């Protein structure tokens, strides 16, 4: 198991958009924390993307959740993990693309990621929420743009606990392989709900493609 801590790449401009996205996610989560269990469930179902109810609200009503779902998280660890990855990798992609293009990149990667999950599991009744699909797009773009960067990770394996610097290509390649293995495992054993693995996979590939558009 590993957790990224920081990277070796230098950004050319302040990451205003990355910081703003993190701030919005935190504010939304704080608001969620004030809701009753019933209100929170309603909030998640109305703001998340539910595959088997996608067209119930007609057009353009079904479009809104594709954006709102990117800012809703199921719990503190879900939020913290996503924001950590966004902070480490997002600033460099924002620096590469520029602030305006980064906003479009982030939203497009998130939307494509959600669509990929829907295509794989169109009958799912669990809301797709979280920024991980969009952040997966950032990881894909980072792999292409900064393959020689190094990532400091905190790693623990049984009794081995240490911080090490690892090439970005290894870290992100291993991360992507994990998503594929977990996604195939979820399909094989028909696991209900849980992590939207194919949103991660689709977002990662979308990030690579969007980098060249």
Write the layout of secondary structure elements.
Layout: E1 2-7, H1 16-33, H2 37-47, H3 64-68, H4 76-97, H5 99-120, H6 132-145, E2 150-157, E3 160-167, H7 168-188, H8 197-211
Antiparallel strand pairs: 1-2, 2-3
Helix pairs in contact: 1-4, 4-5, 4-6, 5-6, 5-8, 6-7, 6-8, 7-8
Average pLDDT level: 92
How many beta-strand runs? 3
As a whole number of angstroms, the C-alpha radius of gyration is 17 Å
Structural class designation: mainly alpha
Largest sheet: number of strands, sense, barrel closure: 3 strands, antiparallel
Order of helices and strands: EHHHHHHEEHH
Total count of helical runs of at least 4 residues: 8
Give me the CATH architecture, please. Up-down Bundle
Work out the count of structural domains. Answer: 1
Beta percentage is 5-15%
Report the span from N to C terminus: 34 Å
| Helix proportion | 55-70%
**CATH class membership:** Mainly Alpha
Biggest sheet strand order reads 1-2-3
Tell me the CATH superfamily. Answer: Rhomboid-like
Taken from the alpha-carbon principal axes, the silhouette is globular
The low-confidence runs, each spanning 5 or more residues with pLDDT under 50, are: none
Q: In the CATH scheme, what's the topology name? A: Rhomboid-like fold
């Amino acid at each position: 198991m590993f957790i990224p801590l920081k990277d070796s790449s230098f950004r050319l401009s302040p990451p205003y958009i990355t910081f703003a996205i993190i701030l919005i996610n935190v504010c939304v989560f704080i608001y969620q924390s004030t809701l009753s269990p019933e209100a929170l469930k309603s909030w998640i179902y109305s703001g998340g993307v539910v595959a088997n109810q996608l067209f119930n609200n007609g057009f353009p009503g079904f479009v809104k959740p594709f954006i709102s779902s990117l800012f809703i998280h199921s719990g503190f660890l879900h939020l913290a993990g996503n924001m950590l990855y966004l902070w480490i990798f997002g600033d460099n992609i924002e620096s590469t693309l520029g602030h305006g293009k980064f906003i479009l990149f982030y939203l497009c990667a998130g939307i494509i990621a959600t669509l990929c999950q829907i295509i794989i599991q169109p009958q799912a009744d669990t809301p797709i929420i979280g920024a991980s699909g969009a952040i997966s797009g950032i990881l894909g773009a980072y792999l292409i743009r900064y393959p020689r960067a190094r990532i400091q990770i905190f790693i623990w394996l049984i009794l081995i606990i240490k911080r090490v610097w690892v090439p970005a290509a290894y870290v992100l390649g291993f991360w992507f392989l994990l998503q594929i293995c977990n996604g195939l495992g979820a399909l094989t054993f028909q696991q209900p709900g849980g992590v939207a693995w194919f949103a991660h996979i689709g977002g990662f590939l979308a990030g690579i493609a969007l980098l060249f558009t």
